[in-house]
Amino acid sequence: MGETLDISRRLCAHGSARAHNLVEVLIPGGEFDLEATFESGQCFRWRRVRAGQYIGVIGRSAIHVQQILPRALTDPLAPPPSGARRGNALLVRVVGGMIPPEAEQAFIRYFDLSRDYPAILRRLRRDAAFARVAPRRAGIHILRQDPFEAIISFIISANNHIPRIRGILERLCARYGEEIRTPFGPVYTFPRPEVLAEARLADLREGCGLGYRDRYVWRTARTIAECSDFASWSEWPTPVLRERLLALEGVGEKVADCILLFGFHRLEVFPVDTWIARAMRELYFPDRMPRLREIHACAVERFGVYAGVAQQYLYAAFRARGRAARLPHEVSTAEEDP
DNA sequence: CTCCAGGCATGAG
DNA sequence: CTCATGCATGGA
Questions:
Q1: Cα–Cα distance between A23 and A18 in angstroms, integer?
Q2: Chain A, 21-80: which CBs lie within 7 Å of strand B?
Q3: A64 within domain boundaries
Q4: CA–C1' distance A272–C4 (Å)?
Q5: Strand B proximal to A251 Cβ, under 7 A
Q6: Which domain-ending residue is among A228, A248, A263?
Q7: What 3-state class would DSSP assign to A305?
Q8: Residue A69: band (very low, low, confident or very high) from pLDDT cuts 50, 70, 90
Q9: Could you read off the pLDDT of A102-125 as tens digits, one per residue?
Q10: How many domains does chain A fold into?
Q11: DSSP of A72-137, one letter per residue?
């Protein structure tokens, strides 16, 4: 990629820190925006503990993460960073559970920090309509989440509110995941497929609040638990993997595409939900309602191999606008307010 | 109180 | 293949 990463890191060398499983890694973040990424709807389990500070789980590690500007910290009189936010960095701390081997590489990989998102966004912004609504700063990254977690999460996301999705996943993990104690309270790993496959449907439905999706989650967990080659799915070509995902209970086109993008990091995949359908219609089909196929074709044509990244920026832009306007409910007449 | 949510499975035409 | 309908639950 374009920029080489100048890794600077601090490891807690003193014994007490190690005894408490504390590891700190300081990673340059480019234009990365932690909050925008976490609030962009691709993940559901990161919990904000203070402004700009989050607790979550990566693999079997409990993680505390916050975004910092090293120059501002070391030199309060330094001029404020320019629009490009030089010096942007992530402070990632392992606050419980296992310390991942090659921790900093693991975190760079999870937050996808070695990819040149500014270059991707510049490319995408050559599309005039996209540039009109998308931000200039490449704050949102596509995280590398666990595939099974993505599968279950987006099955639950169907016809559901994000706050409720978060609640369901929280209960699911508290009940079937493994507890990790942290100074911020307990967190839980995502349940393994075999554990969910052994769950009782009634516990999933009433205990976790899954509703009618209990069957989808249970059967999909069972399928994957019994699948001998699930670990190799990540190496399959996208169309093959997509067909395999569509065969899972509770996985339709939209959910399959979310799993491909957020769970298998297939950045060319363009999930079309109600928000994206609305956005694409407004941007590219002002006078009619296109079919799903048309929207997909339009996205591939305009955004190419990074259509999934474009989708995430469009989603964030239109959701933010929707929240601000209290759900405009088809208020038509596209007028610009820059 | 209704309405609806980043849709999906199902059945009918 | 395309389209309409029911769906558990709990925020707004």
A1: 7
A2: 40-42
A3: yes
A4: 20
A5: yes
A6: A263
A7: helix
A8: confident
A9: 999 999 999 999 999 999 999 999
A10: 3
A11: HHH-TTSPPP-TT-TT-EEEEEEEEEPPPTTHHHHHHHHTTTTS-HHHHHHHHTTSHHHHHHS-SS
Q: Which of residues 228-247 of A touch strand B (CB under 7 A)?
A: none
Same domain, A134 and A194: no
Give the up-direction half-sphere exposure of residue A59: CA atoms within 13 A in the CB hemisphere: 13
Average pLDDT over residues A272-295: 93
pLDDT-derived band of residue A18, with 50, 70 and 90 as boundaries?
very low
* CA/C1' separation A111–C9 (Å): 33
Boundary-marking domain end, from A217, A239, A263:
A263
Identity of residue A248: L
Range of the domain at A157: 147-263
Question: What CATH number has the domain bearing residue A167?
Answer: 1.10.340.30
Q: What is the pLDDT of residues A309-330, one digit of tens each?
A: 999 999 999 988 877 765 443 3
Q: Which of residues 256-315 of A touch strand B (CB under 7 A)?
A: 256, 258, 271, 273-276, 311-312, 315
Work out if A153's Cβ lies within 7 angstroms of strand B: no
Mean pLDDT value across residues A232-243: 98
Return the higher-pLDDT residue of A85 and A78.
Answer: A78
In this predicted structure, what is the pLDDT of residue A277?
94
